[in-house]
Write a structure and sequence with these properties.
The protein is an alpha+beta fold and 74 residues long. The protein is 35% helix and 16% strand. It has two helices and three strands; from the N terminus they run E-E-H-H-E. Strands 2-1-3 form a three-stranded antiparallel β-sheet, with helices on one face. The chain starts with a strand and ends in a 16-residue tail after the last strand. The structure holds zinc ion (ZN). The site of zinc ion (ZN) has 7 residues, from helix 1.
Length: 74
């Protein structure tokens, strides 16, 4: 199974979070949801997990260089 990436650097956050999570899709969604709840004050709900799933990018796109931030959708 292809590995996926959830990259906190993609979106603006108060803490300027630099975390990137890479793994299989379900692992990343779970870790990202727990991270969003513990660090960013989101509620870990099925809706949040669905939204996070939509944010995933192929792990091959990972770069350690700083990236341009996008506005958080919704
Ligand atoms: Zn974060």
């Amino acid at each position: 199974m292809a590995r996926m990436m959830a990259d906190c650097r993609r979106f603006p956050s108060e803490s300027n979070c630099s975390l990137t999570i890479i793994g299989e899709e379900d692992e990343v969604v779970r870790a990202a949801a727990e991270h969003a709840a513990s660090v960013h004050g989101h509620e870990d709900t099925p809706e949040l997990r669905e939204q996070l799933r939509g944010f995933l990018e192929p792990a091959g796109q990972y770069s350690n260089e700083p990236r341009e931030q996008e506005a958080m959708p919704g």
